[in-house]
DNA sequence: TAGTGGTCTAGACCACCTC
DNA sequence: AGGTGGTCTAGACCACTAC
């Protein structure tokens, strides 16, 4: 018989009760002291069990308040439509989608000149230390941190499109602005990965332990070369990415 | 001044040393006892710090061996080509890609009849309790668990395509087989999310704490209706998904 | 057998939230 | 003030790996 350690028994028992609805999303778990009595374990052992659930993203704890079962409402992003090739737009698609979902979007924005980080330089096909324009966006939905988005433009493009260095939004959208200058995005290459957040990411996105981030790197191409590289970091518990490929005329649009 | 708790100082110090190459991927960290001396902290405090790094996926521990810095080689899956509409193929694309990378693929496979789980029923647009054929695949690369893949086919399709219930592989590929019967997949809808693994997923994929899973749900459509729903569960530390959209003729294929 | 991490306890004190 | 979780300690014993 595989005897589980006590703290795992605690975690498993609580997980079952969360799954079967004893503790529904948003409700509070019993206090450590109560659980300690119930499982005949020391407070530290109960804490070890609870910590497992926290790192698995099932519950979150806060000092003075207790442990609360997490609840998510995921936001669905259609990445194959997000910046439609025929209707190029900037971050506007984000505001539009969020508003359409009845939520309130907000963001902070800044522009910097930066030497290209290695992975960006590779994707933009420029030298690793060459200058790029970084347009950085920190996005919130109903004041909850949602994602960060960092778009790098190569130096040669800035010469053609000086407004890229303007500190504010470009009203008509950067994609539109660039297209008007003869630099049209005709394709994208998307890379999607996941991992646990770095301390910096955890701070910006205000994620606790147990919530991974979804990393989305989009490299945009003209018919000649890469013209931008956008790295978006999503809270993994609040976001889903969708792609449409081929003919989907048979699809019910129920969502 | 924001004084960090001691176990965070331990974690931060070790993280810096991992980042700057003091402890390169694959190397071992000092023992808990040594770290305890170095940081003038109790063994439990050091363990709390190390546990942070473990849940962040930076290091892995094993009894009797110590803590080892994790190393990853990510496998890149081109999801927009994986089952090319013009060259339909089954799991073969997986073996082909893996072999091309100089790795050795293997898999276990089984077929079951199952009532449609809720999320599958929605996507296949069938009743929630209707029967589906489940073709399930557990994939390994060089004997490391890589992903699980569960494809559900609706009951009405099985009537047309009885070989779907055959327990073995379909030699020419299921997509090909279905196309020959007049059921052609003309489009896909892909959904990508991430979260921490359930205990069951952790067991199948042999992931330790701190490694999220990447969930990929692909619903395939004929020109009339959905014909299959495939849910793939990847180890997030070993996999990346790529999509190509639009015209990428300018892209250097360096990988 | 020696050294490593894994489990567990009992108790102390602190920080935060609610009343 | 009282209850909650957060931090930290000191020590015990167990399980696994290497030699």
UniProtKB/TrEMBL annotation, chains A, B:
PROSITE patterns: HTH_GNTR. The keyword Iron does not apply. This is GntR family transcriptional regulator. CDD domains: WHTH_GntR. Keywords: DNA-binding, Transcription, Transcription regulation. InterPro entries: Bact_HTH_transcr_reg, Chorismate_lyase_/UTRA_dom_sf, Tscrpt_reg_HTH_GntR, UTRA, WH-like_DNA-bd_sf, WH_DNA-bd_sf. Residues 4-72 form the HTH gntR-type domain.
């Amino acid at each position: 018989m595989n005897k589980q350690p006590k703290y795992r028994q605690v975690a498993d028992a609580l997980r079952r009760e969360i799954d079967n609805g004893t503790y529904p999303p948003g409700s509070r778990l019993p206090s450590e002291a109560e659980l300690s009595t119930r499982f005949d374990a020391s407070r530290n052992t109960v804490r070890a069990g609870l910590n497992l659930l926290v790192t698995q993203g099932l519950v979150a704890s806060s000092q003075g308040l207790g442990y609360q079962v997490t609840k998510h409402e995921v936001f669905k992003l259609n990445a194959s439509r997000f910046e439609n090739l025929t209707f190029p737009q900037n971050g506007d698609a984000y505001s539009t989608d969020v508003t359409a979902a009845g939520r309130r979007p907000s963001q902070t924005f800044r522009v910097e000149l930066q030497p290209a980080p290695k992975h960006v330089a590779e994707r933009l096909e420029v030298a690793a230390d060459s200058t790029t324009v970084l347009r950085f966006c920190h996005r919130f939905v109903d004041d909850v941190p949602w994602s960060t988005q960092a778009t790098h433009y190569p130096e040669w493009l800035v010469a053609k499109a000086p407004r890229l260095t303007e500190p504010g939004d470009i009203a008509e959208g950067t994609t539109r602005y660039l297209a008007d200058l003869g630099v049209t995005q005709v394709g994208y290459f998307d890379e999607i990965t996941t991992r646990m957040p770095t301390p910096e990411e955890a701070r910006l996105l205000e994620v606790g332990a147990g919530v991974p981030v979804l990393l989305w790197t989009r490299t945009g191409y003209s018919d000649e070369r890469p013209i931008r590289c956008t790295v978006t970091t999503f809270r993994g518990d609040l976001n889903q990415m969708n792609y449409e490929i081929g003919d989907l005329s048979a699809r019910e649009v129920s969502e």
